[in-house]
Specification:
About 35% of the residues lie in helices and about 25% in strands. It is of the alpha/beta class.
């Protein structure tokens, strides 16, 4: 499952909904289930504003009325998914692409034998996935490869990466070039000026990184720029920045229309 950076909260309001929630907990044992929380609106708004992915087993109208006052935008809001009480339909209601609701909804639908109801036009287009990385000078390939394997496990076997990118300051970085050779992708690089064009989409802006290289993030920004360069369309983060002591990694996605 891709959405590893957020915890998941499940809400149910009826006995039938509670049974569906039990099925989801078997699928996602790390999730937190709240059945008929009181007060309902305060409980769901708290989970939402804290950034938790929220799964509701109730009508979409109830969810919309409860969350409307705290919705910000698709880059900041966590993913919201709604299931009917029979567990037959799974709807990514909010933050479908940027937040990962679409992918999580599809995962749930496949696992429980439900139908994923997609309303976004881009879900009928061909997605491309791109890898972005940053690292310290001289970072060993072992540390770079460790992050790459972690991301591949999160993505699963059905998703192929089509580009590998970093900042132009890393165009001759031995570890990145070695990974590029191992995975069969050329290392594509972007200047800091280009990476800054997507800084509003970064999950975290680092002043330290800005002082060092002239942009607020490398891995996420490089992945976003590479995806947009392939499709000519906006991109979104699929895996936000993951890191170890010496390297960072991220995955972005865009749709070729």
């Amino acid at each position: 499952m891709i959405m590893t950076s957020r915890s998941i909260h499940i809400f149910s309001l009826t006995e039938q909904g509670r049974l569906v929630a039990s099925r989801l907990l078997q699928l996602m044992p790390q999730a937190i289930h709240q059945h008929q929380p009181k007060p309902f609106i305060s409980s769901v708004q708290q989970s939402f504003t804290q950034g938790h992915a929220c799964i509701f087993i109730c009508s979409t109208g109830i969810v919309i009325r409860a969350l409307a006052p705290v919705i910000v935008d698709k880059y900041q809001d966590p993913p919201i998914i709604v299931l009917d009480e029979a567990g037959e339909f799974v709807i990514p209601l909010l933050s479908g692409h940027e937040g990962g609701a679409g992918q999580l909804a599809y995962y749930i639908a496949q696992a429980i034998g439900a139908q994923c109801v997609i309303t976004s036009a881009t879900d009928y287009s061909r997605p491309v996935y791109t890898l972005g990385m940053g690292c310290d000078r001289g970072c060993p390939i072992e540390m770079i490869g460790q992050l790459y394997k972690q991301v591949c496990n999160d993505l699963g076997p059905d998703i192929n990466l089509t580009a590998f990118a970093s900042i132009d300051l890393k165009s001759n970085e031995v570890g990145l070039l070695e990974l590029a050779n191992q995975i069969g992708l050329n290392l594509q690089t972007f200047p800091a000026k280009s990476l800054r064009q997507v800084e509003h989409q970064l999950s975290v802006k680092s002043d330290v990184v800005f002082k060092e290289v002239g942009c607020y993030g490398v891995a996420e920004a490089a992945a976003l720029c590479a995806a947009s360069a392939l499709t000519g369309q906006p991109a979104e983060l699929v895996i936000t920045k993951q890191k170890n002591a010496r390297a960072t990694i991220s995955v972005a996605r865009s749709y070729a229309l």
